[in-house]
Amino acid sequence: VVFLAESGGGSVQPGGSLKLSCARSGDRYYSVCMAWFRQAHGKEREGVASIDAEGFTMYADSVKGRFTISKDNAKDILYLQMDSLKSEDTAMYYCAAAGSMTAVARGEYSYLGQGTQVIVSS
Question: What is the model's pLDDT at position 27?
């Protein structure tokens, strides 16, 4: 079992930045892939960014060039640096652990955190 705890959400003006963190505990040998999902009010949950064990990353087209996913393997922490934020980035952001990048691309995951709220508004 993997436990995920997100932090770092908050309110920011358009054009601003936030850095989300996800502390992972439990079975440290599970999961080839870690990812961030988000869900805006009234919309389906969508994949935002993912990173595999080798550090290969993938991003949704809507965040390419603005968001950066990274991880600290020694501390078991996943990050999402979000720059040039837009109002449409407003959503609950979730950390996830999945078996593969392919699974994440299909919107699938094995474990999901409780989420952290991001609000982008002037």
Answer: 80
